[in-house]
């Protein structure tokens, strides 16, 4: 009887192995095997590097340079006769100013146009620099979003070199920006224009740098520091990615 029961138990189908006890088939799950061992996923790219924060600041500073420089690159302005108001009114900086008529009005209009024409070249150059910096910063941000530095760490070294070159290039650009502006404000056209307005009691047309031009220069100075900091962080990012490529297990410790 016992022999019959033993034979019957041997004929019964065995229960399927538990899921945890199943062995992986050859070739299956091999994509999970790596330096971390079987069953461990490949290391995912690390979170965005700190240079991304600097690049956003650089983009913001470029926008400030572009906007502040555009103030000096406005229309030439001049005097517009408004017969209904009984005189010639000057429209500049959003206000209407009276007190000029006849030859004084014509002379003021000519001086305004000549003064604006002197400022247009340097203002357009500053706008071009601001636009170029904005495109450069947005390109670096896009490269970071596409995780190109993780796939090609050498890109971070190239980014470091570009950041240093841009930072060095901004310094002479700032010098020429203020140098040409001071030449415009020290010109005879600006001096005569200032005296003409002062003779009519207006003090807002002095031959000196205005707030938007100073803000553009300060934004450029801060941009130099931001690009140098971004260059240092790019080197740090390259070293970090290089270590993670050699020892991926450190990624799970971060």
UniProtKB/TrEMBL annotation:
Residues 1-44 are annotated as: Disordered. Keywords: Membrane, Transmembrane, Transmembrane helix. Residues 32-42 have a biased composition (Low complexity). Residues 46-239 form the MARVEL domain. It is found in: Membrane. It is a multi-pass membrane protein. InterPro entries: Marvel, MARVEL_domain_protein_3. GO terms for cellular component: membrane. This is MARVEL domain containing 3. It comes from Columba livia.
